[in-house]
Amino acid sequence: GGILLLEPQPWKSYESKRRVSE
């Protein structure tokens, strides 16, 4: 999970959580 580009699977989850945070 460091680079989102290298990990497209967790990227979706990360983006979702970030939007909820903001």
From TrEMBL:
Keyword S-adenosyl-L-methionine: yes
Domain of life: Eukaryota
Span of domain Bin3-type SAM: 1-22
A molecular function (GO) term: methyltransferase activity
The keyword Nucleus is annotated on this UniProt entry: no
Keywords from the named record: S-adenosyl-L-methionine
InterPro entries: BIN3_SAM-bd_dom (IPR024160)
The protein's name: Bin3-type SAM domain-containing protein
Organism: Nymphaea colorata (pocket water lily)
